[in-house]
Amino acid sequence: MILLNPKEYHLEILQISATRCLCKFMLLSLELYETHAKMLFDLLKNSTFESVRFAIMVLMNDFYLKYPLAFAAYSNDIYGCLRDRSDNVRLAALKTISNLILKEMVKPNGQISEIAFCIIDKHTEIATLATSFFSELAEQQDGEALFNILPDIFSNLVDSQLDEQRQLNEEDFKSVIDFLFKYVSKKKQTESLVEKLLEIFRTADGTPCVWRGLAYIMSKLTFNEQSLKGLLHYYDDYGEKLLDNDVYQSFLTILDNAKKNLEATPDLKVLIDALSTNINKERSPNGILIAVQQVQQPKAARAGGAKKGKQTTSRSKAKAKQSDDNDDDDFKENDGDDDDDENVFKRPMRKEPKLQIISQSKRSR
Q: What is the pTM of this model?
């Protein structure tokens, strides 16, 4: 009665006492827990009293130990407390969740991205506990416990559907990513992560901030022969997004980092040359013009083209023509000097038309 009528029984002492009684009552049996669970978690999310939310969170560990399967249904509400306006509630939630995961009582999943946000929490104790959590998790299962969920964490960090509270500015985003990458070091991990990030790139929506985030994450990787082949193989999944300046700069960073391995692995030069050519073609005047024309193309025209079956697109035709023109130019310029590789990575110096490129928009908190 007291908890169901907070306006009538508005004294904090009444609310906290009733909450503690309810929690102890629910620990008596699974039936009692299931009967009152919804009301309890509604209180956890909506109570105006910090002491009530804190008291419930402190007892969450006991609830999980007694009713692990039933408790799992409300995991989103538990992780949601990491966004609570109260420092004490956030800290209690982080202690509860990290304790359950590190003791392998709860399997880690993509929801751990909520803990990643805590790395930059304004409350020092919360930020310290979050960094310690990832450090300890990285030591479990030879690093695989953390690595296996990194793609989900990265995907959640760049999600364009994040609420305003979870939208990171550029500096905070890079701080979180840089911290997590301290635990990515193995060759196989890099290759696997490249493939998964490219898959996220392929399915990403049309929000430039998502592309920029993914491209920055990829620029933190050390690319070997296998991962460079992956970039070339899946080029169509991200090629058009190179029109964004930030995405383009991140891929230039990837090229620069890959070149550092040339001395140890000379065979990488062929792959780097091919990737560099693709990237610069996408940024060429013709590549930009084609992209603009595609955006402006009426939907009706696209639908009409689809009915005619498989056809060569205007983009591919233009690219083919551009490639032929470039080949002719290269033949004229390099006639008799096929072995000159001096300018392989030099970007074109031609004056490009003044077409607007997608501008950078910083993330806001």
A: 0.72
